Amino acid sequence: xxxxxxxxxxxxxxxxxxxxxxxxxxxxxxxxxxxxxxxxxxxxxxxxxxxxxxxxxxxxxxxxxxxxxxxxxxxxxxxxxxxxxxxxxxxxxxxxxxxxxxxxxxxxxxxxxxxxxxxxxxxxxxxxxxxxxxxxxxxxxxxxxxxxxxxxxxxxxxxxxxxxxxxxxxxxxxxxxxxxxxxxxxxxxxxxxxxxxxxxxxxxxxxxxxxxxxxxxxxxxxxxxxxxxxxxxxxxxxxxxxxxxxxxxxxxxxxxxxxxxxxxxxxxxxxxxxxxxxxxxxxxxxxxxxxxxxxxxxxxxxxxxxxxxxxxxxxxxxxxxxxxxxxxxxxxxxxxxxxxxxxxxxxxxxxxxxxxxxxxxxxxxxxxxxxxxxxxxxxxxxxxxxxxxxxxxxxxxxxxxxxxxxxxxxxxxxxxxxxxxxxxxxxxxxxxxxxxxxxxxxxxxxxxxxxxxxxxxxxxxxxxxxxxxxxxxxxxxxxxxxxxxxxxxxxxxxxxxxxxxxxxxxxxxxxxxxxxxxxxxxxxxxxxxxxxxxxxxxxxxxxxxxxxxxxxxxxxxxxxxxxxxxxxxxxxxxxxxxxxxxxxxxxxxxxxxxxxxxxxxxxxxxxxxxxxxxxxxxxxxxxxxxxxxxxxxxxxxxxxxxxxxxxxxxxxxxxxxxxxxxxxxxxxxxxxxxxxxxxxxxxxxxxxxxxxxxxxxxxxxxxxxxxxxxxxxxxxxxxxxxxxxxxxxxxxxxxx
Length: 736
What we know:
Keywords: Acetylation, GTPase activation, Metal-binding, Phosphoprotein, Repeat, Zinc, Zinc-finger. Residues 478-579 form the PH domain. InterPro entries: C2_dom (IPR000008), C2_domain_sf (IPR035892), PH-like_dom_sf (IPR011993), PH_domain (IPR001849), Ras_GTPase (IPR039360), RASA3_PH (IPR037774), RasGAP_CS (IPR023152), RasGAP_dom (IPR001936). Pfam families: BTK, C2, PH, RasGAP. GO terms for molecular function: GTPase activator activity; zinc ion binding. Strand 19 and strand 20 form a beta hairpin. The protein is 36% helix and 19% strand. Helix 11 (375-394) runs antiparallel to helix 12. Among the domains are: 29-110 and 118-166, Immunoglobulin-like (Sandwich), CATH 2.60.40.150; 282-430 and 439-464, GTPase Activation - p120gap, domain 1 (GTPase Activation - p120GAP, domain 1, Orthogonal Bundle); 479-613, PH-domain like, CATH 2.30.29. The two termini are 40 Å apart. The protein is an alpha+beta fold. It has helices at 179-182, 203-210, 222-229, 233-246, 250-264, 277-289, 291-297, 299-308, 325-344, 352-368, 375-394, 408-426, 438-444, 450-463, 564-578, 628-641, 643-659, 675-706, 721-730, and strands at 2-8, 13-19, 29-40, 46-58, 69-76, 81-85, 96-104, 127-134, 143-151, 160-166, 479-488, 500-508, 511-515, 522-527, 533-536, 547-551, 556-560, 587-588, 593-594, 597-598, 612-613.
């Protein structure tokens, strides 16, 4: 018996799946036809036979890379069971069998009592079972794919039954196990079926939702109202984030609701600490947009930790006799250093959408709490460290970094690493006070060094520096990197070493400058929006190593870094801050323009298009496979579920608008900043929901009239089979 834990990311619900090895997913459907026929025997006696025709199957599971299915057909009676098999269909999970099997269902007079211990002329006592199997050469035999049981009651007076069935789990029959022998397992299973209409049906509600980022105040928007009426913020956040990501409007929406939350926050130490709609939406955005970021950043070091199994327990109470406390501390310190380094060096890989969100959070927090210099960092670290990296380290299997939950020893190591990384990223005033355990406070003394806090701030500066030039007017310049390098004089035609000068380079999210020395006025300033590409320069150009070029509309600036690592760092960070520029190049010249021509392609015009494709440089943002109409349908269903709360909220808006007095007690849970605007939005929401409800009602009526139950489009399942049988006894046809 194998126990697997899976996470349904769309609904954010944990599902435990219990599977008997070998692992096979129960799925598929089968088309069966039953017919009762009278047959005259050689002696002239009339008896009744059941013709069972297995026509085809669809969607059977793939087992070990292929499917070789066959069907076993059995007639089950009170005292007998006869079975017959179809031929095996090789390498297909949509087999076409079309085979007929005959079973006698009444007792001919010539049969003796020993053939039939019980009178069986009543076919209602019998059933047909069709089992689907995968033919296997493995030692443990063929794999069971599913079954259907069809009581012969369904034949009714017509004697004919033709229907599709969903395959069901195996029926254990009379087998029973004592509960004490097996234990118990509690499951929470949620099944959701969405009927998605054409896109135009959702236009009113979708347009209303997508305007949420521009609403003033944002608390009067449709998206914010959804978060107010839902029982859990998470159920509103999931479809909202997917919808706004799909239409490219996630950043304005999150910026608006985050700014509103910051303005309601009184203490900078509690900023974004609650389970608000803002927090849940940003969590969901990081989960969707940042999964690849986690893979390239954390997965290698997590894999190493899980493979090494080094002892890292530092709690003296839990220490094993064979372990040494100082050795364990050193092991843990090395792991924390490794993880901390890969995180703080990963800023250039952070997805653009996350950087834009963090930039907005930083600006809102800094503007609201101007006296607190660290709030611009804690506003971002509360998400990237507390809600992103720390949980991924703690439970790597939930973030697709590991296939299974780590063993207890490794899990303990990851817990200690996660705690330390979370505290390092928090930039709290008193680090040791953050730990309840004294052994953790002692261990943290290793990291009471400015280099760690400086590294965190540099990392947060980079990921919260928006690369969009149109944000320049509202952002405070952030220093991202600086240092001495050698640059070639721009605009010179002469070739010689005297054209190369040592300069102090400084990069902010607004501009790239160089100075004669540190602290002096800039000799040259290149706005970030003017950087068209940042690429390496071939060594042959100037017979110098570690060179790169910053390409501008008029010319390229050629720079030599101190070493290859420094060159790579400058290229990465310059690419990061300029990657959203509108006129970025797709091709470039890998060599310099000297003596009247390009050394790489020999073109004489200095404006000649590049001859080599630009390198990607950074991981591309992940394109999500999101169905906008499906997400709008999910949001509609939430509004429909909580329609009573919408009406209460509408009443609250009316009360506040008319009397302008204190809120009534039953409405105190709603945030209503502008009653008039909120009332208008609520009215539009209710109108859109009612229109969709009418479409759903019409769809159900049409479905009831047109769809035959048991057809390929609507196979029969166990949960409604008894209803089907009862209906069959009353009439010859049944449809929904």
